[in-house]
Amino acid sequence: MTRPHTADGREPAAVELRGATVRFGTRTLWEGLDLEIPGGEFVAVLGPNGSGKTTLLRVLLGLQPVQAGEVLVDGHHVRRGGEGIGYIPQQKAIPEDVPLRARDLVGLGLDGHHLGLGLRGRRDRARRVDEALAAVGATGYAGAPVGRLSGGEQQRLRVAQALVGDPRVLLCDEPLLSLDLAHQRTVSRLIDERRRTAGTAVLFVTHEINPILPLVDRVLYLVDGRFRFGTPDEVMTSETLSELYRTDVEVLRVRERLVVVGVEASGHCHGADGAVLPAEESVTP
Amino acid sequence: MNEILDKLFTFDGTAELLGQPFVRNALLAAALLGLVAGVLAPLIVARGMGFAVHGTSELAFTGGAAALLLGVSVSIGAVAGSVLAGLVFGLLGLRQRERDSVIGVVLAFGLGLGVLLLALYPGRASNKFGLLTGSIVSVDSTNLWVLVIVTLLVLATMAVVYRPLLFASTDAEVAVARGVPVRLLSPLFAVLIALVTALAVPIVGAILVLSVTIIPGAAAARITASPLVATILAVVIAEVALVGGTILSLAPGLPISGYVATIAFLGYLACRLVGRARGQVRTG
Ligand SMILES: Nc1ncnc2c1ncn2[C@@H]1O[C@H](COP(=O)(O)OP(=O)(O)O)[C@@H](O)[C@H]1O
Ligand SMILES: [Mg+2]
Q: pTM for this one?
């Protein structure tokens, strides 16, 4: 596979948005979004519910058209089913009776979207699936029915499923949602390892920046059609967030954690490990 | 009691009957049906389409009854009815509750219409009864050709769409993200089900289509989570039930469907027991 190169011979950005705009009817979700994310960068996508984080991922997957602007992944205009993108869905339990083994789930991530029986490349396929399973430490339960594994084990498989195709970009939509702290750490460490060794760009949608804060290079913060893109130190400040939310917001650093105080309790962010707390909630240690 | 048992399980003349061309046709038809039903069954179970299959088969019955009354081929009527139903069900959204209620509504209406059509039919009663419970003499050589062609068509289509279909049936969200046309596969699979249903109605009857399209898949799911092994197992169970049921029904001269459903059910029980013993799939 050849990658298009820019005029000066550099590799194109893993993800590039130029003036991207999404509207639903008369409602503009966001407008004029410019992003350039090089390979290997870890970007956290934050914002209250309904601010368009999932929609941004859908745009990059080619499932949601933009009304204006351009969207490129690895130098190509996005299209539905395009190669080069891995996707980890919001963490939720896989039903117990799903008739797949762990290795089948991962295998579907490799070529489940292809037509035909795929009999020819079977050995190569098995090897790649084995490698992906080994990379997330899932070799021990490769033959187990997915529905019977724990939430943490299932989410490791999701990582393997998303990475087995060697994507240039990894999109994650709240992949840690109801995992305990230990598993949150394992899963985010696996993703971090990959982007460091393989140069995969990561867009990581989350309610809670703290579990991944040490890994994050830049933050995209979306609020009500407004957005800010920059390093955590630039974006996660009282000044910037007050501007975004158009109200007084205070960002505190408590040990190694960020605590955001003053965002109205309009169902924004919450949870025991919440990064963004409504004003009346106490600050968790 | 013994009399009934003797009547149910007799092999007087089975050997002679096996030499008859119409019996050989019936066996061949049963084997072909077992193959396609077994291939589809695990996916039908994975997609939770048991009720849709039942609805489809009742509409095949309605179509068959209409054809009987109009004096055209019953097979054509059955195919028309079930494909129409399959398309309607396949185009319905994926929301379980809405799907269930619409299928219930269509099924009830179709069954009622079929009963009226049959009541209006002046011909032989065995023709009427055959639609509901199946009959061995329903398979003549023209039907056999239809059966062969439809079997090849279904198998070829499955060979092309199997992987995305499995993806969409077991992991829809990621399948959509990877560009699998989930919306398109749903009606396509419904049409495949409708074709197999239409083949099954003359043999096992409209009320027992589930015995070959659901039971083998449900049984396999008790033992294995491997899609390949489940498919092979479902085909084996469907074949044993259909071919075995046909042979058992010969001498007593009773409907095939009762034997087929019973053998398939015993296969299901056996799989449950094996599954429980191995602790592979949680019971209950
Ligand atoms: N296809 C659609 N049609 C109309 N509105 C939509 C559509 N998809 C998303 N929305 C709306 O866009 C907003 C953003 O949704 P989403 O991207 O899921 O937000 P987030 O993931 O940040 O919570 C929501 O208010 C949602 O109702
Ligand atoms: Mg979302």
A: 0.90
